[in-house]
Design brief:
The chain is an alpha/beta fold. Helix content is about 35%, strand content about 15%. The longest helix has 13 residues.
């Protein structure tokens, strides 16, 4: 399967169906609109938003065509409890069961919570920890 370009979106593919990234641009509405269009054009259907409530200025438009799961936590450098991961990781296999679905997991910058969440999802999908980490580090340096 050929991966669709993510264009202006602040995101990178890890698999043909799973992408990891950061939020829509909070300071440039035109760029945020371009990013949103890029995600739609790339076929993103599901979004896991790991930002803390009210973090950042941009959010997923309520009228968007994405199925959004919000599982926010603060980017405070603390070890996240298993319950936080359990609040969204099991959603991935169900979201990706349909080969036409594409899932974006993101946080504000796409450098801590988003990649951590994507790592946990890759493990649930049967990846080894080494392969999951290598994919994230390669695709989202």
């Amino acid at each position: 399967m050929t991966r669709a370009r993510l264009g202006d979106a602040n995101a990178h593919w890890l698999t043909d169906q799973l992408a990891v990234g950061g939020e829509l641009n909070a300071f440039d509405e035109d760029l945020a609109d371009d990013q949103l269009r890029s995600l739609v054009a790339a076929g993103i259907t599901h979004v896991v938003d790991l930002r803390a409530p009210r973090e950042g200025m941009s959010t997923w438009p309520e009228s968007s065509r994405f199925d959004v799961l919000r599982a926010g936590t603060h980017d405070d450098g603390s070890t996240k409890p298993a319950g936080w991961f359990a609040s969204f990781v099991p959603w991935a296999p169900a979201a990706l069961d349909d080969p036409r679905h594409r899932l974006l997991v993101h946080c504000a910058m796409g450098s801590n919570r988003g990649p951590s969440g994507a790592f946990a999802m890759l493990l649930m999908l049967g990846w080894t920890p080494d392969d999951a980490l290598r994919s994230i580090q390669t695709q989202r340096p």
